[in-house]
Amino acid sequence: MPASPMFNPADLIRFLPEIILTGMGTFLMVLDPLLNRRESKVYGTLSLATLVAAILAAIYAYSQPGPAFGGMLMVDGFATFFRVLVFGVGILTILPSFSFLKRQQAETSEFHALLLFSIAGQSIMAAANDLIIIFIGLEISSIASYILAGYLRDDKRANEAALKYFLLGSFATGFFLYGVALIYGETGSINLSVVRSVIVGPDAPLPVIVGVAAALMFVGLAFKVSASPFQVWAPDVYQGAPTPVSAFLSAGPKAAAFAIFLRIFMTAFAPIGHAWMPLVWASALLSMTIGNFAALLQTNVKRMLAYSSIAHAGYVMVALAARSQIGTAAVMFYLAAYACMNVGAFAVVSYLSGKGEQYQDIEDFAGLAQKQPFIAAMLSIFLLSLIGVPLTGGFFGKFYIFKAALESHLVWLTVLGLLNSAVAAYYYLRLLVMMYFREPGDAASSAEPLTPAFSAALILPAIGTLLLGIFPGWVLDFAGRSASLVK
Amino acid sequence: MNLLLLVLLLPAAGFLVALGAPRSSPASSRYWALGISLITFLASLALLGWFDRSLGGDQFTVDLLWIASPEIRFHIAADGVSLWLVLLSTFLTPICVLLSWNSIQNRAKEFYAFLLLLEFGLVGVFLAQDLFLFYVFWEVSLVPMYFLIGIWGHERRIYAAVKFFLYTMAGSMLMLAAIIYLYNRAGTFGYAAILDQLASGRLAFTPYQQMLLFLAFFVAFAIKVPLFPLHTWLPDAHVEAPTAGSVMLASVMLKMGTFGILHYALPLFPAAARRCAPWIAVLAIIGIIYGALVAMVQPNMKKLVAYSSVSHLGFVVLGIFSFTQLGMDGAVYQMLNHGITTGALFALVGLMYERRHSLEIEAYGGVATAAPWLSTVFLITTLASIGLPLLNNFVGEFLVLQGAALANFKWAIWAALGVILSACYMLWMYQRVFYGELREAVRAHMPDLNLREWAVVVPLIAMMVWMGVYSKSFLDPVGKTTARVLEQTQVNVPYRVDLRGSASTEVSRAR
């Protein structure tokens, strides 16, 4: 459907979260020169309020579900789920960054403005129903993230991370754009539903060309979610970026990229699912295996979490390979659980790493349980959830994913995936061993006292992890209902 | 309030409260753990009183919806086997609290909290009637034991804790895959509903599917038992664990495996179980003899008792896979006996370690002179462990051997060899530790039992004698339940397996 020239006031309501985020992001940039540079609490607090407002706006927009701007956006349960998810990740990124930025003496408004822009991009991705809008959202989100990765500009590793992320990310976007161009050339449309109907219609383009376009988009998106074999950038970037940014990168952009992954492949390319499924299958297995086995060898916690996030992308790919509505719901649930536990784990790392981030080794977690029992307990919850122990969100996430996979008869992928998660237990256990079974070292002893914002940054995801693990029905019901809207 | 729910939730509540206790006063944590575990034990005794012994089926059922979709129910109930295993757990927890009274000074609050969490997990495993719930408890019980070994264990505790966790985790992942597969086929996690579908033929597996599913469950359970050759985590975990950890691990946790085989693997996949029975019985017998031989050459008392566990658990598995009423009764009885006797052995070894700070047999000698009561108690436990008549293990081993003989006479002969060997290694160890020349180091560090330690050993000894003399009081409900299991593994076999097409006709008729 070509965009209708008629302007509909409901469109603005459906676009309200993005308006709030970009408006506030711009305002923060303007505010900076007017204020004293040391007033970072103001920027942080304003950003938090903005994100809370954006969540409310997203929920309000969902009260009037439907397409906006002539079908370029689609505000449905699916979009709302991912919007709220990325806004939540934003909140959990800002909370620990108060003390982090203070410690690094890098309290500026740019950090928060860029973060809000990036989240706005992800919010657009969540609701996009049109290949160009998807691309725009992807670019807004990515460009802001590139800068965020290099935010600590005096840090060599951060520079390396930003450059690597930018170069490889641009390549990936290029691939994606090639795919879009091919599809537009062959089907004459960029609207996902139209593309789908053309593919199955009488004037269908050559299957090879559609396949190539799908493969090109797959490459671009696999890069964004750090799935194998396009995961190579992730460890360096996660390790080099400022820790709160690593937390953000591992959850927010990834969730949004999976959202468009689902939108594109479960709507436009659903008819050729048999063709792309082996690709996803192989990528899932590779990601799980490479991520888990490489994580076994790491001594730097951020790097280990980076590899673990590759493995987790692999688990999500398993649910994608299931190509079913249950699989879609499983992806959504898993990403919510993953956001809670992974952002929480990174928050602990950022708390412990100290000035100049010198404490990032696994050894530095030694004896944390004796010096900081509360933080150790919170990190244990996140780690047990990452392992997939019952009564945590990570367990139910895995359970739904592998249930979906078995329902689609992916028996081998399920068995290999589950055995993979037994391997994964080893490296998460190493951190538990350090915290609980060893005597305290420098890092644990020199940790600063907890601030209220930081406590919230730990307690909120911990509550989320446990709620998703004990009452998964609340989120799963919504995910299940929303998953059916992807058509 | 349902009594069974109370028994399950009391330790969980105790755990939460213990977590919130002040760090500064370990005594309050100790008294709290003792109090709550004693109340739990009393509640479970009341359970025994109200249990209708004339029925073999599930009692005290609690069935609540937990998660709507996929439907997962909080469904617990007790039958004639799980009742005793729950009692065993609640009986041993206060004993473990008393055992740790002085030896656990470091981070006492967490220790008792984890002990209560462990009790919660164990009781839940035995009571769950929903496969999913069962899996949840199965994994939940893993976490506190991991910490118990890892924080309060001996020198190589970290290696032992991680090995223990990973072994169990690898097994349970296979089981999880099988559980999800079962759910996708049956449309429910409810155990009774799945059994109904199997019995009526609405759910049927090809022999190949059934074999894979059986093996997925069985390997998870066999690791926990542990069945030879999957036992290698056990000596490490037992030796490195603190005394209370060893007791809970040996007495209750290993029973999770044998209980799982009896309660899940057999009724769900009877044809595959019967096909595998000869192989498994051979592995069990190898375990019996291998465990005994390795125990004989151990210089370390705890390791000796650990290997004797491998041997004793072999009897349990052999009894189950004899597919006879006698053998299964004996197997269940042997689970309880092993819980009491080996629990007592670990407790006594722990008491000696507290005095002499060594587990090496060489470091002792002449203890009988220095601590006569301790030696007497140890002797009774040793005799119980080697199967002296009028003590508990005799009854169980006798029944198992009888059942094995009915199934295959050669099995009984080989297994009986294990009984003889157990007398050798246990008595030899007793002789070296308690008799002989009294060493000065032993004399100086070996006071006799004090009041708290008497409180630990008297209930255990009393149970050994009671279970040895009047086994009928235990075996009645057990027999009803094992008879049901046996029935499930016989009657339904032709219905459940597509053997030469006969079952498929049954299936189509049922539809």
Please describe the structure with a list of short key phrases separated by commas or semicolons:
heterodimer; A: 487 residues; mainly alpha; two-stranded antiparallel ribbon; 1% strand; B: 511 residues; two-stranded antiparallel sheet; 23 helices; 3% strand; globular
Name the helicity range of chain B.
over 70%
Mean pLDDT of chain A: 86
Number of helices of chain A: 21
Element-by-element helix/strand order of chain A:
HHHEEHHHHHHHHHHHHHHHHHH
Mean pLDDT of chain B: 85
Largest sheet of chain A: 2 strands, antiparallel
What's this, in brief?
The complex is a heterodimer of chains A (487) and B (511). With 487 residues, chain A is mostly helical. Helix content of chain A is 77%, strand content 1%.
Topology:
The complex is a heterodimer of chains A (487) and B (511).
Chain A: H1 9-14, H2 16-34, H3 40-62, E1 66-68, E2 73-75, H4 77-103, H5 109-127, H6 131-149, H7 156-187, H8 192-200, H9 207-224, H10 233-240, H11 243-268, H12 273-296, H13 301-322, H14 325-352, H15 368-371, H16 373-387, H17 393-407, H18 411-437, H19 442-446, H20 452-470, H21 473-483
Antiparallel strand pairs in A: 1-2
Helix pairs in contact in A: 2-3, 2-5, 3-4, 3-5, 4-5, 4-11, 4-14, 4-20, 4-21, 5-6, 5-11, 6-7, 6-11, 7-9, 7-10, 8-11, 9-11, 10-11, 10-13, 11-13, 11-14, 12-13, 12-18, 13-14, 13-17, 13-18, 14-16, 14-17, 14-20, 14-21, 16-18, 16-20, 17-18, 17-20
Chain B: H1 3-20, H2 26-50, E1 59-67, E2 72-78, H3 82-99, H4 108-127, H5 131-140, H6 142-152, H7 157-186, H8 191-200, H9 207-224, H10 233-240, H11 243-268, H12 270-296, H13 301-320, H14 325-356, H15 367-370, H16 372-385, H17 392-407, H18 409-434, H19 440-445, H20 451-469, H21 472-491, H22 493-496, H23 502-510
Antiparallel strand pairs in B: 1-2
